[in-house]
Amino acid sequence: ETGVTQSPTHLIKTRGQQVTLRCSSQSGHNTVSWYQQALGQGPQFIFQYYREEENGRGNFPPRFSGLQFPNYSSELNVNALELDDSALYLCASSLLAGGRFDTQYFGPGTRLTVL
Amino acid sequence: GDSVTQMEGPVTLSEEAFLTINCTYTATGYPSLFWYVQYPGEGLQLLLKATKADDKGSNKGFEATYRKETTSFHLEKGSVQVSDSAVYFCALSSGTGNQFYFGTGTSLTVIP
Predict the structure, then answer these.
(1) Which residue among A42, A100, A105 places its CB closest to the CB of B97?
(2) Phi, psi of A83 (to 5 degrees)
(3) Which helix (H) or strand (E) is A12 found in, with range?
(4) How far is residue B94's CA from residue B91's CA, in Å, rounded to a whole number?
(5) Chain B contact present for A42, CB below 8 A
(6) Quick one: average pLDDT of B31-35?
């Protein structure tokens, strides 16, 4: 069983640019969630995708968007990057059953730096 | 809205000391509660969980009991080891099942 993988590991962008981060879910999982973790803080929930549809969203603006593909891989897109978007972005996959999260398995993250 | 409040750190303990990390929550409905751990240089890992009131989650000598009356899910371990040094996060999934909230994390350092 493969774990959750994310790419790239590190990324440097400038303010105003757009970025796409990628995640490959653990085999058999139908749900992927994305989180933003600022330095020294806990992860903040961005959104969750279930069967290719957004299933829940945290307090993030619309310039944060995502996609989930039939093979359950996923993308996080951020438009019009701001300096405060600099953070570790985590992807987590799980099996959603009965409307409840099962255990989430996290990837190692993508470190995004916005200059 | 739902939220998790976690004991501020950092916490430094001697080996074999007793550990408590406090966590309280605010939620509507019936959330599930979790403790995640992040070891140095590694990703987040689930440590334990509890899905309903009075459930006790346990793993690797750590325990936490889901207390609905006090809205708490405190993490405890009777005798910590140097290898327990890590950052610990309390988290909840909402009663609706599609939102997830983490605390700010508590850094634990265990010295020999």
Answers:
(1) A100
(2) -55, -35
(3) strand A10-13
(4) 10
(5) yes
(6) 93
Q: Which of residues 3-32 of A touch B (CB under 8 A)?
A: none
Q: Looking at residues B15-43, what average pLDDT do you find?
A: 92
Smallest Cα–Cα separation from A33: which of A100, A91, A75, A73? A91
Cβ contacts (< 8 Å) between B103 and chain A: which residues? 42
Task: Tell if the CB–CB gap between A42 and B49 is shorter than 8 Å.
Answer: no
Select the residue from A100, A102, A110 to test the B interface by mutation, using most B Cβ atoms within 10 A.
A100
Report pLDDT digits (tens) over B52-110.
Answer: 999 999 999 999 999 999 999 999 999 999 999 999 999 998 877 678 899 999 999 99
Instruction: Look up residue A94 and give its two tokens.
Output: 């799980």
Question: For chain B, how many residues are written?
Answer: 112
* Average confidence (pLDDT) per 10 residues, chain A, 115 residues: 87 97 91 93 93 91 95 94 97 80 86 97
Q: How far is CA B54 from CA A3, A46, B49, B98, in A?
A: 31, 30, 12, 23
